[in-house]
Specification:
Radius of gyration: 23 Å
Number of strands: 40
Strand content: 35-45%
Largest sheet: 5 strands, mixed
Strand order of the largest sheet: 1-27-28-29-30
Helix content: under 10%
Structural class: mainly beta
Shape: globular
Distance between the termini: 46 Å
Length: 520
């Protein structure tokens, strides 16, 4: 199926290859708005001329995820994509969901926030890590994607920012860049999280997350982001030094998008402001190309692509004036608008969701024809979506694009074009096991697990020879989240030697295990 995906990419590039930066080529959706430029454009092709529920995954009751966009990537190296979603920081929970069936593979209630996790091999070990800003403890974490163990952590001020990564200092390795509410943008070494540089603005950096691109044609990546001081900044990626800034009339919560909107073979910067306007700036010097008045705050990020098939890219962006606007990329002139009928801070994304060779616009759970903004399909569900953005990827390896989004009814939805008979309120049976914490441990470690229904549960510890060394729990438990601890002792209370052990949990007919390392 991956080979088929590559063939599809080649075809699509011929249709929409309009940018000075390399066209988005990743069939996954591993960061905010798909790529380091934040184009919001998927290269995949779907067959969704209408939509059906592929699966619907219910999170724990308190862990609603209406503010959390989803990252999609193969975090455990099994060839199947996983979706990564946050519970809101007040009700934390980081969930890793199997793309095939919506089963929760693992979760951890220690994490939460508004950050969209980044999925990337940041330390060059050949496996994917999960990198995110954790609101409860103001820390940026890099986790092992397979089991959730901590690779490194970096503490900053309280942060909502979605991190991005790229080789900003040209050392042949990836760096991680993110913003925080103390007005700083930080660049960290991807291997170990060590500090490289930071830059301080005059206001908080809430949701205007950094984008990376060569905006001045020097062959190096620059960092572009917005701040609550009403200003967009461009910095040298190597050392964080100032290049240019542009001040608007309102705070900036819209993450900038970098794209060649006028076909001049150079990148421009497009973003929204709470002064109700959309702006397009020259990438090399920050001068104004055009602006467009929407009548409401513009917090969502723009998506850019040739949605009307005229050979020129368009800018599509939501406004809190309860509308989505499609503008001509070259001069900012009006193409069409779509009335959403409600307050709209969500981002929009673009992809050929119905396989007609043309790009469609997707917002929340709706698809619009790119040419004129007419409705293609609308998925009805209970609840609402705020600040979140749908993600587009081939989550089941069938070579076709699916749409994944989360809502405040505690459900993550995956939609495709094939009727499955699944109704909106029906969810798959869930049994999930979180990583051991702490891991490694010396005196005590804990695992948490979630049950969809009341069932008989057995929790045991095994050594790596497959021998049971301790029974921890046996009995019937109710649905919901439970936890069990282990002190490193065997059945008779003897201290076991240092080494790797397995937590094994059987819940009804389902089983799961997690490795844990004991250090004496």
């Amino acid at each position: 199926m991956r080979a088929l995906s590559k063939l599809i990419l080649v075809f699509l590039f011929g249709v929409v290859g309009l940018f000075a930066q390399p066209m988005p080529s990743d069939p996954d959706w591993r960061m905010l708005h798909h790529d380091i430029y934040h184009t919001g454009l998927s290269p995949m092709i779907g067959d969704m001329d209408t939509c059906y529920v592929m699966w619907a995954c219910t999170l724990a009751d308190s862990h609603f995820a209406s503010c959390a966009p989803l990252s999609i990537g193969d975090v455990d190296g099994d060839g199947i994509l996983e979706s990564i979603v946050f519970g809101e920081w007040i009700y934390p929970g980081l969930y890793v969901i199997n793309g095939n069936d919506g089963r929760i593979q693992w979760f951890d209630t220690a994490y939460g926030g508004y950050s969209m996790p980044l999925i990337e091999d940041i330390n060059g070990d050949g496996t994917q890590e999960i990198i995110f800003c954790n609101s409860p403890d103001s820390t940026l974490y890099a986790l092992n994607g397979e089991d959730g163990s901590i690779l490194w952590e970096y503490t900053s001020d309280y942060a909502w920012s979605s991190p991005v990564c790229g080789d900003v200092d040209e050392d042949g390795k990836l760096e991680v860049v993110f913003g925080s509410l103390d007005g700083k943008v930080h660049a960290l070494n991807g291997e170990d999280g060590s500090f490289i540089w930071s830059y301080t603005t005059g206001g908080s950096i809430e949701l205007a997350d950094p984008a990376l691109g060569d905006i001045d044609g020097d062959g190096k990546l620059e960092v572009v982001f917005g701040s609550n001081d009403s200003t967009v900044y461009a910095l040298n990626g190597e050392d964080g030094s100032f290049i240019w800034s542009y001040k608007t009339g309102g705070k900036i919560c819209s993450s900038p998008t970098l794209a060649d909107i006028d076909n001049d073979d150079s990148l421009e910067v497009v973003f929204g402001s709470n002064d109700h306007k959309v702006y397009a700036l020259q990438g090399d010097n920050g001068s104004l190309i055009w602006s467009y008045e929407t009548g409401g705050d513009v917090c969502g990020s723009p998506a850019i692509g040739d949605i009307d098939d005229d050979g020129m890219p368009e800018v599509v962006i939501p406004s809190e004036a309860s509308a989505i606007y499609a503008l001509n990329g070259e001069d900012g002139s009006f193409n069409w608008s779509y009335e959403t009928g409600s307050f709209n801070s969500n981002g929009v994304v673009i992809g050929d969701v119905d396989g007609d060779g043309k790009l469609e616009v997707v917002y929340t759970a709706n698809a619009l024809n790119g040419e004129d903004g007419s409705s293609l399909w609308n998925f009805t569900y209970t609840g609402y979506i705020q600040y979140s953005t749908p993600s587009l990827a081939d989550i089941d390896n069938d070579g076709k694009l699916e749409v994944v989004f989360s809502a405040n009814n505690n459900i993550v939805y995956a939609l495709n074009g094939e009727e499955s008979g699944i109704e909106e309120e029906i969810t798959p049976g869930l049994f999930s096991l979180s990583p051991a914490d702490p891991n490694p441990f010396t005196s005590k470690t804990i695992v948490r697990y979630e049950l969809a229904n009341a069932t008989n549960v057995n929790v045991s510890i095994y050594n790596m020879l497959g021998q049971k060394v301790r029974d921890l729990y046996s009995g019937k438990q109710s649905s919901g989240v439970h936890e069990v601890s282990w002190d490193g002792a065997g059945t008779s209370g003897e201290k076991l030697s240092s080494g790797t052990y397995l937590f094994k949990i059987k819940a009804g007919e389902k089983e799961a295990s997690r490795k844990v390392t004991l250090v004496r």
